[in-house]
Specification:
Helix content: under 10%
Strand order of the largest sheet: 1-24-23-22
Number of strands: 24
Number of helices: 1
Structural class: mainly beta
Oligomer: single chain
Largest sheet: 4 strands, antiparallel
Low-confidence stretches: none
Distance between the termini: 41 Å
């Protein structure tokens, strides 16, 4: 494990923290507590944290423009007006299935949204990955359990994703103009037998390195473009869920205390916190593109 400087950004303890999203223009980090139906936000300029109650479970977001965000929820995509907070439906995704919810998601450089759905109790085979762009929704993978680690190469020609129980990170060639697959997925990185934890959320930097939160292992892993793990940064919490670049060599990481009993939580006092990792070496941060609706 590599030691790094870490600090608590938010002492709000999320039952299932997920989907950190940094808006460079607003200088604000957003993240979700899926199971408690909350969206949290931290304004770095004002040093102010706010919380919004949500009408249903949500796990990720994207920005359309200065006035509109899109929220990914258990029933699909919703357009949210920034000034009024008004929600309007944009695209239903398994909206008639009460057994599934949203999970991991990421915006492709073309403006497409890759969206992972899963069973609310992580039932095997109930997970899928969808592609949304400019009003068109396409299911691209099904039969998954916990879709995670969705991210894209800087040039938009490759996608990465995992089904967490498989312990395998996949990669697939894409049409850079649409974000749609042009081939079948193949293995990119395989966790070792008996290794602690499972791959959760991920981001890809400007050099094509993948930064993956390893749930259950207190680790933020760096995977080189050749598909080998080259660094594991020790985190002060057991269940990190997803990273997000916030610039200046810093990465925000969400976490969770889901499935922890009182004794386990006492042994992991930072469980559910959102932290900042200050890297000891430069990194080419990449921020999320705007969504094409």
């Amino acid at each position: 494990m590599t030691a790094a400087t870490t600090r608590i950004l938010s002492n709000t303890r999320c039952l299932l923290g997920e989907g950190p999203f940094y808006c460079e223009r607003r200088k604000t980090l957003y993240w979700f507590d899926i199971l408690n139906r909350r969206r949290h936000a931290y304004d770095f300029e004002r040093k102010l944290e706010t919380t919004q109650k949500l009408p249903e479970m949500a796990s990720a977001m994207a920005v359309v423009d200065d006035e509109r965000d899109v929220i990914f929820t258990e029933s699909g995509l919703w357009l949210r007006e920034v000034s009024t907070g008004c929600w309007t439906p944009l695209c239903a995704i398994e909206g008639d299935d009460d057994a599934t919810r949203s999970n991991d998601a990421r915006v492709h450089p073309s403006g497409a949204f890759w969206l992972g759905m899963m069973g609310k109790s992580a039932e095997p085979g109930m997970g899928s990955i969808y592609h949304y762009r400019a009003g068109t929704l396409t299911e691209i993978y099904d039969g998954l359990t916990i879709p995670n680690a969705i991210c894209f190469s800087p040039d938009g020609t490759t996608a990465y994703f995992t089904d967490t129980p498989s312990r395998t990170l996949m990669h697939v060639s894409l049409d850079a103009d649409t974000g749609l697959p042009t081939a079948e997925p193949d293995v990119y990185f395989q966790q070792s037998d008996g290794e602690t934890g499972g791959m959760d959320g991920a981001i890809c930097d400007g050099e094509g390195q993948i930064w993956n939160a390893r749930w259950g292992a207190s680790s933020l892993d760096r995977i080189a473009p050749n598909g080998t793990r080259v660094e594991s940064i020790e985190l002060p919490l057991t269940q990190p869920s997803c990273p997000a670049f916030i610039g200046d060599g810093r990465i925000a990481v969400t976490s969770a205390w889901e499935n922890m009993d009182a004794e386990t939580r006492a042994a992991d006092p930072n469980a559910g916190a959102t932290i900042i990792v200050e890297l000891q070496h430069p990194v080419q941060a990449r921020f999320e593109p705007k969504l094409a609706i």
